[in-house]
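Issue: copy button drops trailing tokens. Both records pasted manually instead:
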Amino acid sequence: MTEGFTYAAAGVDIDAGERAVTLMRSAVEATNRPEVVGGLGGFAGLFALDTARYTRPLLASSTDGVGTKIAIARALDRHDTVGIDLVAMVVDDLVACGAEPLFLQDYVACGRVVPERIAAIVTGIAAGCTQAGAALVGGETAEHGDLMGADDYDLAATAVGVVEADAVLGPERVRAGDVVVAMQSSGFHSNGYSLIRRVVASAGLDLHATPAGLHRTLGEELLEPTRIYALSCLALVAELGVDAVHAFAHITGGGLAGNTARVVPEGLVAVLDRSTWSLPHAVALLEEHGVPRTESERAFNCGVGMVAAVAPEAAQRAIDLLQGNGVPAWVAGEIGTRAEPTDPVARAVGAYR
């Protein structure tokens, strides 16, 4: 006769979860903003919105994950960067409408709580929050031992931001003649990894080797964290104003054309000149192993992680401000009227240099 069931025997180690919280506590608390009320460990995160700062504040929210890039992190047993990716995916969606990221909450589901691994993941999330100026006000770690493998995990997060109602950015502000300013990506960011992993496996590529054209191993290239543009984009709006900065598009799944199209109003077209930047070597490597160019441009950012539609007279100032904040930027195209009713909303011309 059994002596009784225990939660640990069923696959949930409460003690390990508590140790993980202890290990991550200092990193989480380092993200605090003055508006954060209380500390880590409550049932809910509290944030005091200073309504005196705003005339008509709108709250913005975004939820996303990292996707199968986590499989690369597991293969290399490196877990301190995917948290940055997680933050980037949500805060850079927020800033696309002009919202300032305020706070974020994460969700980590795993097969087994390894405190050091969970702490590394959340420390990365905290690092991303610091880059975005957002507070990490809490989260949840769930151990699903009977549903996931012991070393499996997945990540998700929700971020909340705020923007003045009369300062919301988007297609309503975009005009013919606007300049499309491109901001360089740091790599593949967090999109296209199901395709990347399929090619790596099929071609027998070694994550620990350094392919021709790269200056680091393929694994390091694929784990490069997503660039967080939020504070640089907000600084651009603060300096130039919404009369000059009309829209941002975060280049994620769907590629450059597909995401730029989301901020182009009916009747206009964004024409992007590929010759204004070089195709990243890592993308070219995947094309060498069978990925068609058309598929690269749909699945990957191809070197551009964010674009801004700005008034033409503000374009050079915008580029100077972005580069001053460490974000390489250039004029990649312009907004024009459609030549034909059947033209796509966004299209690319020319070849990569």
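Record 2 (pasted manually too):
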Amino acid sequence: MVDQSELAWRILSRKYGATLCYTPMLHAKSFATSEKYRNDMWSSLDGDSEQDRPLVVQFCANDPDLLLQAAKHVVGKCDAVDLNLGCPQGIARRGKYGSFLMEDWDLIYKLINTLHVNLEIPVTAKIRVYEDYNKTLEYAKMVLSAGAQFLTVHGRTREMKGQKTGLANWDVLKFLRENLPQDTVFFANGNILYPEDITRCLNEITCDAVMSAEGNLYNPAVFTNSTNLKDQFPRVDKVLRDYYEIVKNCPGEASKIAMKSHIFKILRPFLPHHIDIREKIVKIAPRQDFDGVESVILEVESIVNEIFERENIDELDKITIGELELWGGEYRTVPYWRCQPYFRPVNGITGDKRITQALKEKQDEVKNISKEEIINESKIDGSKDLKRSAVDDLENSNVKKQDV
């Protein structure tokens, strides 16, 4: 994640159940050549043995030598180095890295193999898929042959981003899992809205682990093992306070730079109901204005505490589970004072409704095709019956002529 899985957020995510964390996507050239960039993005506590392990440090790169130089700076402070081949953002297109290396398999091989041969810690890679399953399989095999010791696959194509994100394709992930060598360590990524989706993904794909990016940013408890719904969707005031107390004790700049963005995401369901707080957050400069952040958190705490003092709070604070959807899971209805997934709206229609509508249309299309096939088969069968009848008539006619 670009600038979003910095030290403070990783510590918070581990508190809520994450067992393995990745750093933000670090720019290999800048990390290798700029001491200021390294100091801003990497602190003395990053990779700390007690607070920040196991840890994978993720780089984007298009130069094998610079990637190796960058990776050497984190040896001893992490458990693996990852090459990000999945970033679909415009900045990756301009810089020629992330998913925009998918046309240059030779370069990808050199990037991974250079680390594999010269680095004393494991190398991994995260990729996106092609529309063509077999091409995706050959791509994954190439990445593994270059030296990647495990593979993370995001079940979306490069074009599926922003308002075109859509549903990740678990079928192609399952296809890869079944056709790659059985000893391949395989991580799946995509469609993780709720904690139950992690178990569902592990069972359906038989992968070794499940990664969540956006789902985790809006609800760090997406990784919880608890079956209690209220543990799965913690109160925004509690998460916000936990996160802020961690940030205050994190050295370096990365956690402070990311704080405002995280506050907006944690409070995403809350802010439409309290617009005045949104305006206060906008005015905050987190790196200098910790008092401003503290005042916002105190106000959020006051509002949520007032809600929980109401006599009908048991009724108000209910979390309901919807019907089983075509994509395999159920949507939840969660009170706005609790963390919850974000469904990106397009033309006023949120992502959950778009996906449900698209799957229903696809299902109806399949049903219509099946009906047409049945009708066509009936026509064929009918013509066969008609032909048999004509033959029978002709044979009967011949018999009669012979009799005469």
